[in-house]
Design goal:
The complex is a heterodimer of chains A (about 190) and B (about 300). Chain A is mainly alpha-helical. Helices cover about 75% and strands about 0% of the residues of chain A. Chain B has helices spanning about 1-25, 30-40, 55-65, 75-85, 120-125, 145-150, 175-180, 205-210, 220-225, 255, and strands at about 95-100, 155, 160-165, 185-190, 195, 230-235, 240-245, 265. The interface of A and B includes residues 64, 67, 69, 71 and 87 of A.
């Protein structure tokens, strides 16, 4: 249990997927203009990340490793993630229309989120057990959401701020992201 | 090598089958008419109908909670197409409305209390004593309406007052809802005479603030042959000349009589058309000879 908590805290704060490992930058910049959409995207990522990591772990351990074809990892994982997202979308549309409406447009976006593939591969590289995999993926999802929400909050305020014209828009967002990344380095000595 | 090919093929096939089955099993019946209506709608998502975007409006039509004549940008053409999809007769033709600015106090006419150099946005400026102009009712002139217009129908004029292009305005009311001073109003396109002032202060105060202010002299009220214009008092003790558009015949007598020129007759499409007597529809007459007088 103690180990799980350490993995989760490490994933959320110390090795934050966006701000320390620089994965999933695309949705981080793309879906962070509004707080509400940032929350929707974040929750969808937590959900998909945990589920896809479990499935990729199973495929890696029981199919790829057994047959000695570990080099197919990347393409197999992409296949799994894409299919899973589609599947989840269909199930949600049928069974939980409200949740589908809330997450709807963000789900297909996640297929191309490199954070999902990155976390799946990191889980294998660190040879985690299935429980550790779940903890790590969930933690990374929370870390992504945290970074996204913080960033969206800052960007909403930046909208109102008097920014030099040449920096208005994406440039100031990139500078902000860099400063956030530096500040997250402060968590390095936490554990 | 052979394992790699087989295992990937099996994985792919397995996911294919699972997705295929899921597609059937979890199929959600979506009313095909929603798609059909969505294709007809302009897709500007202006929100003028009061529903969240064109999609929301299409769903509301199917659910039976919205009438089919709510789409202002779509005009009658789209209403007919929706009617065709829904299998009902088109309702009576919707009257096209355009936004009118009820203020004429540009930089050259209005007095200023202070010079505003903050963020160039009416909402921000409005928080400081209702804007820099001495008239606290008038247009602030920083162009928030220009930004809010989804159809790019509003531009800033030379006197820092927004100018609405009647041809481009779709009557979606995005600017009307956005304006912090509430000086924009949707008026049917056939009405040409407007009181271009919103100042409800007494005549002397209004006149000091702006040279084209309504001074509540009631001359327009006395001269109107139809009784269409009157100085109306509101609950807070202010008053202003208001036109009853159901009675106004665009005769323009009030425009001539108004001592401060607060009432204006706008010259939209075809008002000076030599060919056509019925210019009230705002449409070019069939007899149009492209004389160019109307523009």
């Amino acid at each position: 249990m103690r180990e799980m908590i350490i993995i989760i805290i490490s994933a959320v704060l110390i090795n934050n997927i966006v701000l320390s490992q620089f994965l999933g930058i695309c949705p981080f910049l793309g879906v962070s203009k509004k707080l509400s959409s940032a929350i929707g995207m974040g929750v969808a990522v937590i959900f998909v990340l945990t589920l896809s990591s479990l499935l990729t772990w199973l495929v890696q351990v029981f199919i790829l490793d057994k047959l000695g074809i570990g080099y197919l990892q990347t393409i197999a994982f992409i296949l799994i993630i894409a299919a899973l997202v589609q599947f989840v979308e269909m199930v949600m549309k049928k069974n939980t229309p409200d949740l589908y409406k809330a997450l709807g447009i963000y789900l297909p976006l996640i297929t191309t989120n490199c954070a999902v593939l990155g976390v799946a591969i990191i889980n294998i590289q660190k040879s985690y057990t299935v429980m550790q995999t779940l903890a790590n993926s969930f933690g990374n999802g929370v870390g992504f959401t945290l970074a996204l929400i913080l960033f969206a909050g800052i960007r909403e305020r930046l909208e109102e701020a008097d920014i030099p014209e040449s920096l208005d828009g994406l440039p100031i967002a990139l500078i902000t992201a860099a400063l956030m990344s530096i500040s997250f380095l402060g968590f390095t000595g936490l554990l | 090598m052979i394992y790699a090919v087989i295992s990937l093929a099996v994985l792919g096939a397995a996911f294919g089958i699972v997705l295929g089955v899921a597609q059937k099993k979890f199929a959600v019946e979506v009313d095909p008419r929603i798609e059909a209506i969505l294709e007809v709608l302009p897709g500007a998502n202006c929100g003028g109908c009061g529903y969240p975007g064109c999609n929301g409006y299409a769903e509301a039509i199917i659910a039976g909670t919205a009438p089919i004549n709510m789409c202002a940008p779509g005009k009658e053409e789209i209403q007919k197409q929706i009617a065709a999809v829904m299998g009902v007769e088109a309702a009576e033709t919707t009257v096209r409305k355009v936004a009118q600015l009820l203020c004429n106090g540009g930089r050259d006419r209005a007095a200023f209390n202070y010079e505003y150099e903050g963020i160039q946005d009416c909402h921000v400026a409005a928080t400081m004593f209702k804007g820099p102009k001495a008239c606290s009712f008038g247009c602030i002139g920083l162009g928030s309406c220009v930004k809010s217009c989804p159809f790019k129908a509003i531009v800033m004029g030379p006197a820092q007052l927004p100018v609405v292009d009647d041809d481009l305005c779709m009557g979606c009311s995005a600017c009307v809802n956005d304006c912090p001073q509430h000086v924009l109003k949707l008026v049917e396109v056939s009405h040409l005479v407007h009181v271009r002032c919103s100042n409800k202060e007494k005549g002397k105060i209004a006149k000091d603030a702006c040279t084209v202010a309504c001074i509540k002299c009631k001359i327009c009220e006395k001269n109107c042959p139809e009784g269409a214009i009157s100085v109306v008092a509101d609950a807070e003790g202010g008053s202003i000349a208001v036109i009853d558009y159901t009675k106004c015949t665009n005769c323009g007598i009030c425009v001539e009589k108004c001592p401060t020129k607060a009432i204006e007759k706008s010259l939209p499409l075809a008002t000076e058309c030599a060919q056509n007597k019925d210019i009230t529809t705002g449409q070019k007459p069939s007899s149009c000879q492209q004389c160019g007088l109307c523009h």
